[in-house]
C-alpha cells in the first residue's frame, strides 16, 4: 500500500522528466523491451518499495515482484523486479531508486535505535524534511519505531517558548489545559532535573527531557516515582543508537528522537538491461 497518492507520485516523475527523456529519446531505444531489478547493496530495512513499484507502473512499466516495506534485507537481496519498454523503465528508474534509498535510510536508522533499547518505545519527532512527512512516517514505522507527534494539531506539548508567555504558576496553566482538552496528555519540555520535578508535581503527564543525559533521566525518575500516577520520563534531543541503551538502563520507557531523519541514504543497486 502506498502512502503517496498517484498525483504526488506522478509529480515526482514530471519533475525528473518534464519534457521527456532526452537521452533515451535521442538514442531511439525507448520502445525496446527491458527489465529492471532493484537490490540492496548492503544490509538495510526496506521502506517505500510500494511507492517505487507504483512509480514504475505510472511510467508505463509493469511490476513482476516487490518486497514489502519493513522487511530486513541482506546485501544483494533483490526487492523489486519490473519489465516494460526501455523508455518507461528509464523514466521511473531514478525517482524510484532515490525514494527507496532515502526512506530505507530512515527505516534502518530507526531500527538500530529500537534494537539498541529492547522493550522501550522509540518515537520519532516531526523534524522530517518539509514536504516529506508521509514517506518519513512510513519509513519510521517500517523501522519499528512510532511517531512522537504528527503535527501541532495533535498533541499538547508545552515548550519553554510557550511558558515565556504565561503569567500563572504551572499548576494553574496545567489545570487550564486539562479543562480545555481533558482527553489529552499534557507533555512539557524541561531543561533540568529541578524543572522536571517541579512540573511533575504541578501535574504534567509527560516530562520531555531536552538534551539531558541518562543520569539526569534516572534522577528525575527516582524523584517522581512516588507520584500517582508517576509521569512518563522521555529523553529527547540527542537520543541515538549510541546512548539508547543507557537511557533504557536509567529506567526510561519512551525515547524521543530525530536521529533517523539525518544520515546517509541506503544504497540500492539498479540493473536495467534489454529483455
From TrEMBL:
Coiled coil: none
Keyword Transferase (UniProt): yes
Entry-linked Pfam families: QRPTase_C, QRPTase_N
Domain Quinolinate phosphoribosyl transferase N-terminal: 21-104
InterPro entries: Aldolase_TIM, ModD, NadC/ModD, Nicotinate_pribotase-like_C, Quinolinate_PRibosylTase_N_sf, Quinolinate_PRibosylTrfase_C, Quinolinate_PRibosylTrfase_N
CDD domains: modD_like (cd01573)
Family, similarity comment: Belongs to the NadC/ModD family.
NCBIfam families, A to Z: modD
Protein name: Putative pyrophosphorylase ModD
Organism, scientific name: Azospirillum thermophilum
Amino acid at each position: 500500500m502506498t502512502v503517496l497518492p498517484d498525483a504526488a507520485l506522478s509529480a515526482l516523475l514530471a519533475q525528473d522528466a518534464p519534457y521527456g527523456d532526452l537521452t533515451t529519446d535521442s538514442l531511439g531505444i525507448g520502445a525496446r523491451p527491458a527489465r529492471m531489478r532493484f537490490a540492496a547493496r548492503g544490509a538495510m530495512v526496506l521502506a517505500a518499495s510500494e511507492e517505487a513499484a507504483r512509480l514504475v507502473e505510472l511510467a508505463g512499466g509493469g511490476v513482476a515482484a516487490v518486497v514489502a516495506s519493513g522487511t530486513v534485507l541482506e546485501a544483494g537481496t533483490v526487492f523489486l523486479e519490473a519489465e516494460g519498454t526501455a523508455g518507461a523503465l528509464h523514466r521511473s528508474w531514478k525517482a524510484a531508486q532515490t525514494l527507496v534509498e532515502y526512506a530505507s535510510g530512515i527505516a534502518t536508522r530507526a531500527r538500530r535505535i529500537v534494537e539498541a533499547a529492547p522493550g522501550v518505545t522509540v518515537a520519532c519527532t516531526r523534524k522530517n524534511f518539509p514536504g516529506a512527512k508521509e514517506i518519513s512516517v512510513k519509513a519510521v514505522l517500517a523501522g519499528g519505531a512510532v511517531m512522537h507527534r504528527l503535527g501541532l494539531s495533535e498533541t499538547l506539548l508545552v515548550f519553554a517558548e510557550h511558558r515565556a508567555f504565561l503569567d500563572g504558576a504551572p499548576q494553574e496553566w496545567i489545570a487550564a489545559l486539562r479543562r480545555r482538552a481533558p482527553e489529552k496528555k499534557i507533555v512539557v519540555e524541561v531543561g533540568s532535573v529541578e524543572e522536571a520535578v517541579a512540573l511533575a508535581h504541578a501535574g504534567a503527564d509527560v516530562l520531555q527531557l531536552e538534551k539531558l543525559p541518562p543520569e539526569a533521566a534516572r534522577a528525575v525518575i527516582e524523584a517522581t516515582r512516588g507520584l500517582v500516577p508517576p509521569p512518563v520520563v522521555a529523553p529527547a534531543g540527542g537520543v541515538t543508537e549510541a546512548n539508547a541503551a543507557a537511557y533504557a538502563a536509567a529506567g526510561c520507557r519512551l525515547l524521543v528522537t530525530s536521529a533517523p531523519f539525518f544520515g546517509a541514504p541506503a544504497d540500492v543497486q539498479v540493473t536495467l538491461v534489454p529483455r
